[in-house]
Amino acid sequence: MALIVLASASGSPGVTTTALAFTLNWHRPVLLVDASPDGASGVFAGYFRGAQEPTGGLINLALAQRDGTLVEALPRETLILDPDATAEKSAWFLPGIRSHEQAPSMLPLWEPLAEQLRALHRNGQDVIVDAGRLGLVGWPQPLIAASDLTLLVTRNSLPALAGVRSWANALRDQFATVGGLSRLGALLVDEDGRWPTVPTVVPRVRPYAARQIAKALQIPVVASVDWDPEVAEVYSHGARKPRKFESSGLLRSYRAGSASIHSILATNQAALAPTIGGRA
Length: 280
Fold this sequence. Notes:
Layout: E1 3-8, H1 15-24, E2 30-34, H2 42-47, H3 58-67, H4 70-76, E3 79-80, E4 91-94, H5 110-118, E5 126-133, H6 141-146, E6 149-155, H7 158-177, E7 184-190, H8 210-217, E8 221-226, H9 229-236, H10 249-272
Parallel strand pairs: 1-5, 1-6, 2-4, 2-5, 6-7, 7-8
Antiparallel strand pairs: 3-4
Helix pairs in contact: 1-9, 3-4
């Protein structure tokens, strides 16, 4: 089991869309947790197109935590994301808050919830957390601290990178303190696809490459996803799948990103394995 957190430092780089797309293209059973403190409910309004009635989700779990019934309440608050998925790739969803005003009431929940999410390994289930924007009131810092991998989602333009740099420094220091730098990385929404294929009259600033970003932020770039709004709207807006959806560059990049995440998690797990006689 792994706990993976996706978060943004500023702007709207596409954390919710990316987290949802990873969940629906994951290689094993997985739970998507909407832990964003802004209360936007992007999955209900977008992917479900308003057809799915919102449940209490995290609010009900916060109440259950006060009553000492969090363990029993957690499975009751999850919804199936893809009814057609096989048992080996089942995808579930834990809804978040409905308003940013509810965010402060989440603070006592995050640590015990992190323990319960990590315990889902007994069911062979991974967890992907949409943490939204970092630093807002009620943000799920304990979930980041407990994560097996936290990914800062950013576009690769200069304005986006300027916004993410201070948070990259802060998280790098936080993970370094506990010897967990390998649990921090960046995920790029690659704006290179917006670059015109023919010369234009007005010069444009080309986005930065992954190696440049890794050097500037001093954290590895774990994966990149293509800039393709038409395909992304299948996840962000519940749009009809366009022609050649399955072979699109964006879907391939989601699957490649999932594979890269899995590889890093396996490497980290091997590094933490106990040694016997001085050998791993």
